[in-house]
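Good morning C.,

I know you're traveling, so I'll keep this short. The sequence:
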Amino acid sequence: MFNIKNYKTDNIKNDILSGLVVAVALVPEAIAFSFIVGVNPIVGLYTAFILGLITSLFGGKPGMISGATGSVAVVLVGLAIESSAYLKAHGATGDDLALGVLSFIALSAILAGIIQMLFGFLKFGKFIRLVPLPAIYGFVNGLAIVIAMAQFKFFAGEGWQMYAIVIAAMAIMYFLPKITKAIPAGLVAIVVLTLLVYFLQLETKNIGDLANLSQYKGQLPQFSIPDTLFSLEALKMTLPYAVIAALVGLIESLLTLAVLDEISGTRGSGNKECVALGLGNFTCGFFGAMPGCAMIGQSIINYTSGGLGRLSSFTAAVGLMILVAFLTDTLQLIPIGVLVGIMFMVSIGTF
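The tokens, ready to paste straight into the viewer:
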């Protein structure tokens, strides 16, 4: 855990500001990955908050960002389809069907968390040091391409305004750090371009167009025990998906840790990350969230914005929940183009 007394004033400022940038950048990703699995958008947002909060406090690498990810979400698609068919066969429909599927997803988070904690307790995290550097570079470059390609879906049906905002965001991200690093370029891009779009009434897609977050205003994650936890049949159905999700999450998290080690010149703890990731996913399962892992794109945004300490990832997690629960109306005004521009620059900078 971090000790605030050990922080210098500049570090506190940088961590808080960079954490706020990441908090906003987490929103479209969390919503998109929820849609992939076929669950309510709030599920992915809760994952980003709960998993991000726990790994920020206990993780093996300060400043690393965790949340709902595409790699884990793809694994859960099969579970969602299989559990949905099972529930329909037993007469579930409508809201009961949706809640039933979520119960299976939550169970997968609990099981994956247990597996990941066991990996940490057995000290398997240290084996990440055996991965050769060229393999890590290949992983990073591959993810950079994936990050860039994932942004193109947001251009569908958009006009020149979207392209202008993306270019403006990329320009701010490129030129502002050459002038001053007092404020993260990503935060400036988000604030300036959101105000510009709002006051000029530009027609472009914003976060509110991805999902109506107003319905979640004032809501915080609620503790609940999944019904599937006490069903042997549900355990048998969920376990194979949980094992795959656990392994995929561990691999991506440990490789991200290795990448951040190279960037920062410091060494994190793979074993601590395994335990923290497992604890985070285990907790997610009891709050109606899905399993996740480290997010290399958001982690690099955090590092390049000056967020190198635990306070930055803590701010990102808490900031995300504050935005979703209490500042929904403001959050929904942020243009998607700004976040696309930021992610393009992350992709370019990752090569």
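Safe travels,
E.
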